[in-house]
Each structure stands twice: as C-alpha cells, then as structure tokens.
C-alpha cells in the first residue's frame, strides 16, 4: 500500500484528521447497525462470561488505551482488570489462571515486549486476545482471537489514529463483556452503542477546534515543563497528552491523576508551567475544578479542555477549549483529539521532525 500525506504537511496531521473516518470503519466491524448491538467480527468471537479477571498488557500509547479500558471493563462488565506495561508484566510474576484471557494491545503487532508477554501468557495456559492494527503481524498471528482496529497504515511515529481505534474496539468489547456477564440490560447496551455510533460525528466536530489550539503553540513552545491532569478515564488521556507532547516537541511533560496534584507536582507550578486540565462536566468535574483553583492560586496558567457546561463553571484560564457534549463513556475518544493537536502544533512551531522524532522508533522490536 502506498500512503501519502495528501494535502497535509505531515503524516501525523493527516492521521489526526482521519480519526472520525477510521474510528467509524473500526466500529462497523464491531456493531450491528440494524440491531444496535455489539457483534464481534467473524473469527473474533469471544464469550467473557466465565472469566474471573482480564489481564491487559501493552506499551506506550497502546498501554494508555488499556488503562482507559480498565475503567470500562470494571464498570460495565464488573470484570476485574489487571493492566501492565508489557516490559514489566513478567517481572511481577503474577499468578495466572489457565483458561483466563490475556489481552495484548498493539498497533504494529511487532513490539518485542508485548510479544514476549503474549508468549509468556500462552505458556501459562492462558487464552490470548489481541487488539491489533496490522493483521499480518506476529502478534495477530499468534493470538487466539484477534480484535482488529481498522486505522489503516499509521506512519507518524507518535501514534494517534491507532489509539482512538484501539479505544473504539475496547469500548465495544467492554459492552460485549457487560452483556455476556449479565451486567448490562439490552437497554443499557443500546444506549452505550448509540453513543459509539455518534462518535465519528463528534470527533469531526472536535477537529474544528484546530485553529484555536494552534494559537496555543507559541506559549507551549516556550515552556520547559507542562503538566496534564485528569480524573477517571480522563486520567489516561492526560498521560497520553503528556506522552504526545514529549515525543514530538521534546518538552518535558507529565500526566497526573488530578487528585495527585497536591502530592507532588504542585511544587512545580508557577507562571512558567502550563497546566492542561481535561475535565468533562461529569460526576468528577467539581473535584477537578478545585484542583484547578489550587493551580490558579499559585499563578499557574491553565488550559482547560471541557464541554459547554464545564466551560460555564471554569474559573480563570489561559484558554478554555470547548469540545462537543458527549456521554461520559465516549469522552476519552473526544478528549484525545485536542491533546494530539496541541502536541502537533507545538512541535510544528518549534520545527522538530514531527513524523520521525529523534531517538524514537515506530515499532520497538528489541526488549
Ligand atoms: C513505540 C511507538 C509508540 C507506540 C509504542 C507501542 O514506542 O513510538 O507510538 O505506542 O511503540 O507500539 P505498538 O505497535 O505495540 O502499539
């Protein structure tokens, strides 16, 4: 397959823009549009009802997709999830149940640590599921069940569209698990699926915030450190936002659970450290808002990413980026976009090699 940048300056920009489309392509593989129910693709059927636990392993951005999925599997399917960075999984020597499910998440399907974890779990008698973008990859071939992402070829070293497609697949799997385990009623399932079907449109709307986000690039390019804060499923998106920024702009960035702010990172806050706060107006908003006040009281400059209701409750910010309203369930796929765009435009402003950042590889095939 030949891929080009089309009208875009970088592959990363093209891949960010493609997300509504490829998330849509991915979702149709997992949703029966006529019944509005989750239907796993042929060859990828799996029944979650008999599981005691689910063990997820991945690296980098794929690991953050797994962190989001833990909230979903535990909430909607009451399925306890263990999640590890693949390179650490074996050293923890976790007790594994033969017949249990180990789920690997990987764009390339070739990451050495993830593959080593897969083989370790297989040797312990576990069943292997894989959320994988490259269908011919080693991880896809060695897994028992493949849950494909349909992101298409991803060229930019910093993963973007593969990430949101991984989230789409994991969201569908969590719903399926909730149904299999009789936690979700047919009605609950219909509501959750409806919010997934709406996603491509909401993601397209979110992309229209690009000019506003681009204006922040100059301020961010001068920062030496940036903090990203979030609660609940926004916490892994904060981690992902920080990873994106450091990967391509080389600015030091850290993602933190908003509640951890007072246990350390607040010591860094002054007028030179931008703080990106991801806070949809959900049950957790008020708590995150109080963390924001702690930042503001120390002269910190806040970039708040929120929805319409949240914007109405924002205090003093450097900028408030208002994304479309959505169900809390799907917010990670929406909030991922502004943090990708912020990293991208900061890097472009600084003139770094966005698609091939120094020292990084698209696929890391050594342990
Ligand atoms: C590298 C890439 C990241 C990616 C990670 C995991 O570090 O630069 O963008 O998230 O590997 O790759 P995988 O192919 O397993 O998803």
UniProtKB/TrEMBL annotation:
The active site is at residue 362. Keywords: Aminotransferase, Cytoplasm, Glutamine amidotransferase, Repeat, Transferase. GO terms for molecular function: carbohydrate derivative binding; glutamine-fructose-6-phosphate transaminase (isomerizing) activity. Transmembrane segments: none annotated. It catalyses: D-fructose 6-phosphate + L-glutamine = D-glucosamine 6-phosphate + L-glutamate. It is an enzyme of class 2 (transferase). Residues 42-183, 216-357 form the SIS domain. It is found in: Cytoplasm. It comes from the Bacteria. Its EC number is 2.6.1.16. GO terms for biological process: amino sugar biosynthetic process; carbohydrate metabolic process; fructose 6-phosphate metabolic process; protein N-linked glycosylation; UDP-N-acetylglucosamine metabolic process. The keyword Transferase applies. One of its GO terms (cellular component) is cytosol. Homodimer. Catalyzes the first step in hexosamine metabolism, converting fructose-6P into glucosamine-6P using glutamine as a nitrogen source. This is Glutamine--fructose-6-phosphate aminotransferase [isomerizing]. The lineage of its organism: Bacteria, Pseudomonadati, Pseudomonadota, Alphaproteobacteria, Hyphomicrobiales. The gene is glmS.
């Amino acid at each position: 397959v030949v891929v080009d940048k089309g009208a875009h300056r970088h592959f990363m920009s093209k891949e960010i823009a493609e997300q509504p489309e490829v998330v849509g392509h991915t979702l149709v593989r997992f949703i029966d549009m006529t019944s509005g129910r989750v239907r796993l693709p042929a060859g990828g059927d799996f029944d979650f009802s008999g599981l005691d636990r689910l063990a997820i392993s991945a690296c980098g951005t794929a690991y953050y997709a797994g962190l989001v999925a833990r909230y979903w599997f535990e909430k909607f399917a009451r399925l306890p999830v263990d999640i590890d960075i693949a390179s650490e999984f074996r050293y923890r020597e976790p007790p594994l149940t033969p017949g249990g499910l180990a789920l690997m998440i990987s764009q390339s399907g070739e990451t050495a640590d993830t593959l080593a974890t897969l083989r370790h779990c297989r040797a312990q008698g576990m069943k292997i599921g894989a959320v994988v973008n490259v269908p011919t990859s080693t991880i896809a071939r060695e897994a028992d069940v493949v849950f494909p992402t349909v992101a298409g070829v991803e060229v930019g070293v910093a993963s973007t569209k593969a990430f949101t497609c991984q989230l789409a697949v994991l969201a569908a799997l969590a719903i399926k698990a909730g149904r299999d385990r009789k936690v979700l009623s047919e009605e609950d399932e219909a509501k959750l699926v409806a919010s997934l079907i709406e996603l491509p449109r909401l993601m397209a709307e979110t992309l229209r915030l690009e000019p506003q986000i681009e204006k922040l690039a100059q301020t961010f390019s001068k920062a030496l450190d940036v903090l990203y804060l979030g609660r609940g499923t926004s916490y892994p998106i904060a981690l992902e936002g920080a990873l994106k920024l450091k990967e391509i702009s080389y600015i030091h960035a850290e993602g933190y659970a908003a509640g951890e702010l007072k246990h350390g990172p607040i010591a860094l806050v002054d007028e030179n450290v931008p703080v990106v706060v991801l806070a949809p107006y959900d049950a957790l908003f008020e708590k995150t808002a109080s963390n924001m006040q702690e930042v503001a009281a120390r002269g910190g400059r806040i970039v708040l990413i929120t929805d319409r209701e949240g914007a109405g409750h924002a205090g003093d910010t450097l900028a408030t980026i208002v994304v479309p309203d959505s169900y809390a369930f799907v917010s990670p796929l929406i909030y991922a976009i502004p943090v990708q765009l912020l990293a991208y435009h900061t890097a472009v402003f600084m003139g770094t090699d966005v698609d091939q950042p120094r020292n990084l590889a698209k696929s890391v095939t050594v342990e």
